[in-house]
Amino acid sequence: MRMNEPQSSAGPELRPLSARSVVLSLLLGVHPPALPVRDLVRGVEPFGIAGSTLRAALSRMVTAGDLRRADGVYRLSERLLERQRRQDEAVHPRTRAWDGSWETVVVTATGRGPAERAELRAELSGLRLAELREGVWLRPANLRLRWPGSLNDLTQRFTARPEQPARALAESLWPLDEWAHAADALLAHVARTERPADRFAAFAAVVRHLVTDPVLPGELLPANWPAPALRAVYADYRAEVLAAL
């Protein structure tokens, strides 16, 4: 079974913009993730979002627990700080030299319901692990993983050196060609997109795709792997947005 499937190579998956999605994207891109109302108003203007629409969205987001408000400044809530961390690591993954070993995680918890099992699977996928078979997850040990303490009672974690050739194993675990095709489509799309709202939606799709990059050692990747180029264009766009703010 494969880790998060990439976007279809038929074209990038672009989601419609809403005041909520724009606000979250702006806050997820700044450090610390906090902006005063005046900056948020200026930030959403290029996307045709009126001030009244923005304020209504901000009120709903505070009520829903997405944001915290103090002295006219809106901040991401604690639960969304984890989303920002994942996004940051998608853009700037923390890697280390690979010695050929693989991170291996065996799920030892039993008696859990479907929702709990799905949550555990999502958390392991978010750590860029892939499922070899039910309950057995692995990846090359080239990432500096932030291992959540919540998983200690649910899994056993160790390193191993599979006898199967590493590149063939990686190709069986991740849809690398499909991921690369979707990334190339995104690069082509952002290069020809000019309207601010369209660019914003396109780069939101870029971030979603980068989150699914397995970040494998170079020797396990196909030639001309497009992830570095995708990260570079997103970094340029984020700098552009922050400068405008």
Q: Tell me, rounded to a whole number, the average pLDDT.
A: 89
- Report the β-strand fraction as a percent range: 5-15%
Main beta sheet: 4 strands, antiparallel
Radius of gyration from the alpha-carbon trace, in angstroms: 20 Å
Q: Please tell me the CATH architecture of the largest domain by its name.
A: Up-down Bundle
Number of strands: 7
Give the strand order, joined by hyphens, for the main sheet.
5-6-4-7
Helical amount among residues, as a percent range?
Answer: 40-55%
Number of domains: 3
The CATH topology of the largest domain comes to Methane Monooxygenase Hydroxylase, Chain G, domain 1
Compute the separation of the termini in Å. 42 Å
Uncertain ranges = none
Give the H and E element order.
Answer: HEHHEEHEHEEEHHHH
Estimate the global geometry from the Cα principal axes.
globular
- Decide which structural class fits the backbone: alpha+beta
Query: Which CATH first-tier class of the largest domain would you pick?
Result: Mainly Alpha
Walk me through what this model shows.
With 245 residues, this protein is of the alpha+beta class. Helix 4 (78-91) crosses helix 8 (196-211). The termini are far apart. The protein is built from nine helices and seven strands, in the order H-E-H-H-E-E-H-E-H-E-E-E-H-H-H-H. It has a four-stranded antiparallel beta sheet with strand order 5-6-4-7, with no helix packed on it. Strands 1-3-2 form a three-stranded antiparallel beta sheet. It has helices at residues 19-28, 37-44, 51-64, 78-91, 114-126, 166-173, 176-192, 196-211, 227-244; strands at residues 34-36, 67-70, 73-76, 102-107, 130-133, 136-140, 155-160. 48% of the residues lie in helices and 13% in strands.
